[in-house]
What does this fold into?
Amino acid sequence: KDYMYADPVENKSNKAPTIESLTMKHALAMLSFKFVQSEGTDKYPGAGNVSLIKLANISGGTVVKTGSGSMNIATGAVTAPAGATANTISVTPNVALMGKSENKDIPHMLVYPGAVAAGKAQISVTVDSNTYNVAVPELASGWEQGKNYLYTLTLKGTALTITNVAITPWDEQTG
It folds into this structure.
């Protein structure tokens, strides 16, 4: 579930209750996963059916947090729950994802904003009944609220690697 907040609107009261426009912001960060196939002699031979994507802490990491946190609705600041050492988040798309680039086709998960240290979390992907583990690379700014982190995963003949991490804002929608 996504959680939203808005900046406070000035000069509103029970005598002037109408708000013309309210801009909502995302309180969490989003991770999206795009799959591409390597070329040449190391080309992935399978169909690319992804049945599980799992994000988990490793090596005593506390990057991945689950459970009930709290949000200051005036500022949007999110406080994640404590005790995140064994947490995992997963999605089960169970479809062929090779080369899909439309947002609706790309699996995603919402995460608490926070620091992302090298070697403290991993992405496990089950493709065509084989599981591949990839370390989450360090992000100096961490996962920031309201941003979508698009991880491009390249399937090779015998491995899965992260070839790119792009940070894009979520699309604004009028509601």
The CA atoms of residues 53 and 91 lie 5 Å apart. The chain has no helices and 15 strands. The radius of gyration is 19 Å. The mean pLDDT is 84.
